[in-house]
Amino acid sequence: MDRTEKLLKNMTEATGIPGFEDEIRETIKSEFKKYADKILYDKLGSVIAVKKGTSDRPKIGFFAHMDEIGLMVKGFTKLPKGYVKFAPLGGWWPATLTGQRVKVLTDKGEFYGVVGAIPPHLLRRREDAQKLPELDDMFIDFGVEEKFNPQKKLGIKIGDPIVPVSDFKIMENKNIYVSKAFDDRVGCALLVRILEELSKKKFPGTAYFVATVQEEVGLRGAATSPWVFEPDVAIALDVSLTEDTPGARSETDAKLGGGAAIVSLDYTMVAHRRLRNFLVKIAEKYKVKYHLVTVTRGGYDTGRIHLFKEGVPSGIVGIPSRYIHGFQSMIHRKDFDNALNLCVNFVRGFDKKKLNEITRY
């Protein structure tokens, strides 16, 4: 594996669901410390690496959330005893959960289990077998047996975090990577790689690299972290949706290998038009493969950041990803490299003059 592949592997395989980001935070901090001039924090646990250029302003903030979707113990079945009931942390489609392996983190250690649902042959009505189970009807089996109650044997208690289990893999098509948590560990890996590249170059202003917490449950770290350094502009680094699988309603360039996505719209924000246009200009100047996209479901950290104080001009750079919010998602290496190239050259070209230009009305 090369530098980027090792980084993606370490990032995606670390655990860190909303409110329980400890392991991934330490992974990111160890990378930030190699290149940053300073490390800052907010009081929810977001981590901010500072890289000084030739002046204090403009303050360019790159934001990527470190949390992944997960589950939390909410109770236990009575009959039969010992199966764990759970609450979702983030958006889950039930079809991605059944039969998947997870682990619960308890005071006694980490223990593996399998997500289950009532099997079709036990359902009373035949038509129910044709429906997806509801999350409330699902449970986790930690090896239940008459004389083995996981609640007692493993010390599982209400409020314990449950995390997906999945390894990072390079597919036979060597450009394609598959893993859990690309949403948004791919953005966290970009934070590190942009910081690393800028440590070798001169650039105007000061760059801030923010790994936020609790994005999947309401963009919460995005609401608190801007107060630490008050950005002049913000770029969210995250996955973007693709339309290159069966069932796509339209033919677009939103596909693996389609280059960096420059997002114009999501459910929480209309991207700042002048900032978006400057991203496009940089992409074309440096021959970075890109495509424009709109997202009509969900939102990014910039949904909160652009409303900070008197407003922060904000944009989004996405990495096209298939099968997000599941146990196995997929990205294309060249899309990552194009996003890296775009962001590095954006920082090198964004000075006080450009800041004044995009914020003058």
Distance between the terminal alpha carbons, to the nearest Å?
A: 48 Å
Order of helices and strands: HHEEEEEEEEHEEEHEHHEEEHEHEEHH
CATH architecture of the largest domain: 3-Layer(aba) Sandwich
Q: How would a crystallographer describe the biggest sheet?
A: 9 strands, mixed
Q: What proportion strand?
A: 25-35%
Inertia-based shape: globular
Radius of gyration: 21 Å
Specify the CATH homologous superfamily of the largest domain.
Answer: Zn peptidases
Name of the level-1 CATH class of the largest domain: Alpha Beta
Q: Would you tell me which CATH topology of the largest domain applies?
A: Aminopeptidase
The secondary-structure class comes to alpha+beta
Total number of helices: 10
Count every beta strand, where a strand is a DSSP E run of 2 or more residues: 18
Report the helical percentage: 25-40%
Number of domains: 2
Note poorly predicted spans. Answer: none
Q: Whole-number average pLDDT?
A: 94
Describe this structure in words.
With 361 residues, the protein is of the alpha+beta class. The protein has two domains: 3-68 and 180-359, Aminopeptidase (3-Layer(aba) Sandwich), CATH 3.40.630.10; 70-164, Elongation Factor Tu (Ef-tu), domain 3. It is 26% helix and 27% strand. It is built from ten helices and 18 strands. Strands 1, 2, 3, 12, 13, 14, 15, 16 and 17 form a nine-stranded mixed sheet that branches. It has a six-stranded antiparallel sheet with strand order 5-4-9-6-7-8, with no helix packed on it. The chain has a three-stranded antiparallel sheet with strand order 10-11-18. β1 (38-41) and β2 (47-52) form a beta hairpin. The chain is globular. The mean pLDDT is 94.
